[in-house]
Write a structure and sequence with these properties.
It is a single chain. The protein is α/β, with parallel strands linked by helices. The protein has a single domain, classed as P-loop containing nucleotide triphosphate hydrolases (Rossmann fold, 3-Layer(aba) Sandwich), CATH 3.40.50.300. The chain contains six helices and nine strands; from the N terminus they run βββαββαααβαβαββ. Strands 5-6-7-3-8-9 form a six-stranded mixed sheet, sandwiched between helices. A three-stranded antiparallel sheet has the order 2-1-4, covered by helices on one side. Strand 8 and strand 9 form a beta hairpin. The longest helix is centred in the last third of the chain and has 16 residues, at 163-178. It is globular and about 50 Å long.
Length: 216
């Protein structure tokens, strides 16, 4: 597990033409801390996660992940987007086996271990296209966990998920945070993620406007 700050953003802006999706964001994410990011649609939450994940490049400012660029730190980043990024015609295990081929074999845990971590039976044979939304979200999280990331970036992980499944996911994320992983969640359902929220950040029009919590 890397030591020191997980991520540091210094005056980061992301522009799309004349639109500032992010504006002058300065933030430090500490190891083992849970961050909850709130804000209306268009506030910049998803863009912030994409910049941290190295999927979008900042227009200006500095982004450091474990002391290097997001691209250099990508092996330590687990990113879960709005979309589950699963192949509907494949089973959960088949999806995860395919995903594992994109990474060095020694880096990944097995599909069975990843599915067990999210409380799904590895032997389930029906394709994920026939899963409930909650089950699909859990498979998507299993996909993210396969690479044993130190930084988890979860964009609306409770979307269309029933409350019982969301509570199970939060309990898992709490265990991962206690193991030293940094967890960053955006959500429109803050009451579900509150047990994880060491720090709560409020975004508006691409800026961080409030912060609650003791972590640096």
């Amino acid at each position: 597990m890397p030591s020191g700050p997980t991520a540091t953003l210094d005056k980061v802006s992301k522009l799309y033409g004349s639109l500032a999706a992010l504006w002058q964001i300065s933030l430090t994410l500490e190891q083992g801390v849970g961050y909850l990011i709130l804000g209306d649609n268009g506030a910049g939450k998803s863009t912030l996660l994409r910049v941290l994940a190295g999927l979008a490049e900042a227009t200006s400012g500095s982004v450091k992940i474990f002391g290097g660029s997001p691209q250099e730190g990508r092996a330590q980043i687990g990113y879960m987007s709005h979309e589950t990024m699963l192949y509907d015609e494949l089973t959960a295990q088949e999806n995860l086996r395919y995903y594992a081929t994109l990474y060095p074999a020694s880096q990944c845990i097995s599909p069975e271990e990843a599915l067990a971590a999210v409380s799904l039976p590895a032997a389930l044979e029906r394709p994920v296209g026939k899963y409930s939304q909650g089950m699909r979200q859990r498979v998507s999280l299993a996909r993210v966990l396969m690479t044993r990331p130190s930084l988890l970036l979860l964009d609306e992980p409770f979307s269309n998920m029933d409350r019982a499944s969301a509570v199970q996911m939060v309990a898992l994320l709490q265990r991962l945070r206690q193991d030293g992983r940094t967890v960053v969640i955006t959500t429109h359902q803050p009451e579900l993620a509150q047990p994880l929220a060491d720090v709560t950040l409020q975004m508006q029009a691409g800026q961080l406007v409030t912060r609650e919590g003791a972590a640096a």
